[in-house]
Write a structure and sequence with these properties.
Helix content is 44%, strand content 17%. It is α/β, with parallel strands linked by helices. The protein has a seven-stranded mixed sheet with strand order 3-2-1-4-5-7-6, with helices on both faces. Strand 4, helix 7 and strand 5 form a beta-alpha-beta unit.
Amino acid sequence: MVDKPRTAEEIVADLRTSSAAYADAARKEGEVWGKMFSDRDFLAIRQDEQAAAAELRLNRDKPPGLHRMLALAGLKPRRGLSLGCGSGRAERLFLKQGVCERFTGVDVAEAAIEEARQTAAAENLPIEYLCQDLNALDLGDEKFDLVVCQTILHHVLDLEHVFDEIERALAPDGLFYVHDYIGETQFQFTDERLRWYNSVMQALPENLRASRLCKVVPAEIRRPEPGKLVSPFEAIRSGEIRGMLLERFEVLEKHESTTILDRVVPTGSRRGYLADENTRAVFELLFLLDRALLEGGLLAPVEGRYLLRRKR
């Protein structure tokens, strides 16, 4: 008899109630991301894909980066905290941009933290790195002028605890910046989103469906089986992030975007759209379709950028 696959809700409940299941998942999570952030080939492709995204103007409808957002608002935080820092690239960039005078970075992946420490020491940067499980954070009271969470909250199981700690760690006028995936938990896409994904995928030629990060050219997009994603905590409660942020924090800026481009033009495939004027034209059509689906209210956004502070 074949066991029935567990639902996303059952997996979350199991991880929150079973210390053994949680410990095993946390170990695997650290191993996966430690290996990924130490993989030079992966990092090189990711960097090149970021350059391709810039050339395609993928982010043209999105707000300015954090440093520009702060500058335009006349805000100058001094002490920064970066949660889910990986190998430290973001903190090094923020310091270069003058976002803060010093940073603390926290991540669960030991290999990534060690690499970040070595780089910061070699470059004599004012960054402290800590290896901690975000679900068991203890940040102390009113230490930081800025807390940054970039593409990490959708890996957090105990969102309530993390938000409690962020609120406690923020200085009275401290800022909380979030850039994250806010789509369906465990990528259990709605029927309508799945229909749009695959209508587009079926119209794309194979060369535009191919990804440098995947050996198989996908013919369609499916809902993955919960608990069988790239890492145990991938999109573990992503569908709850938006509501919790808006309920618990005061919103200074809110920018929500993307309905289908995250899957039909994922990281790994963007360079292919720069091949010639025809592939560029295909991308422009996809971009306009994505914008229309969002503005027309046909699909909910899957990407959110927020500048927040504690409620007063």
